[in-house]
Design a protein that fits this description.
This protein is of the alpha/beta class and 209 residues long. The protein contains four helices and ten strands, in the order E-H-E-E-E-H-E-H-E-E-E-E-H-E. The protein starts with a strand and ends with a strand.
């Protein structure tokens, strides 16, 4: 299996690369600057400059793009749209490192995590833009995409336990009543999905056991 990880130098991207390499998968890092990930196979190119030919031959492309400044937040949509355009009509699957703010908190799917009164105001713009990117993605029937939302508490330096619970469109809590997952365990879930490919054109979510 050949996997490309876009934005492989980032915190999530680098852990996904490491997890895939440790499993013996054929992994290529797509990076804008010097490669700092665990694979030696590299495409050094800005995401927005990628062409269809750059991603030919990959079974899975994992999009680990993320940005946090107000000026760049719209790039969550534009970057994902660009990747969809160059993968349109291909067998290559696209896995997207998503956000938790757009997860639903009721069975009717009318209320999202980001709508809650306790949701931090400083994260609302990010959650809104990531939510819009997901809504745009849902319209793409020409791409074999899977959007993977983390738990509400997404911990960059959390422990790697190797265990997680797979959910769907709604926020899932574990037996302790917590919605939490480490980046390391999230990386395991992403690589599991890359290998299995069970959720084409679906949003799934993951939470620590």
């Amino acid at each position: 299996m050949k996997i490309a990880v876009v934005c492989a130098n980032g915190k999530a991207g680098s852990l996904i690369v490491r997890e895939a390499v440790e499993r013996g998968l054929d992994v290529t890092a797509v990076v804008r600057s010097e490669n700092q990930s665990a694979t030696q196979q590299v495409i050094q190119k800005d995401l927005f400059h990628l062409k269809a030919s750059d991603l030919t031959g990959f079974d899975v492309v994992i999009d680990a793009f993320g940005t946090w400044t107000l000026e760049t937040l719209p790039q969550h949509s534009t970057s994902l749209n660009h990747l969809c355009n160059i993968l349109s009509g291909q067998d290559t699957r696209l896995l997207v490192v998503g956000g938790a703010g757009s997860l639903y908190v009721n069975p009717e799917h009318t209320a999202q995590v980001m709508d809650g009164v306790d949701f931090p105001a400083e994260f609302k713009p990010l959650a809104s833009h990531m939510g819009k990117a997901l809504e745009d993605l849902r319209t793409r029937n020409d791409v074999k995409w899977t959007y993977i939302s983390p738990a509400g508490d997404f911990q960059p330096d959390g422990a790697k336990t190797g265990k997680y619970i797979l959910g769907g469109e709604e926020l899932v809590r574990n037996a302790k009543g917590e919605s939490v997952i480490s980046y390391a365990d999230y990386a395991i879930a992403v690589v599991d999905e890359a290998v299995k490919g069970n959720h084409i054109q679906q949003r799934i979510s993951v939470v620590a056991e």
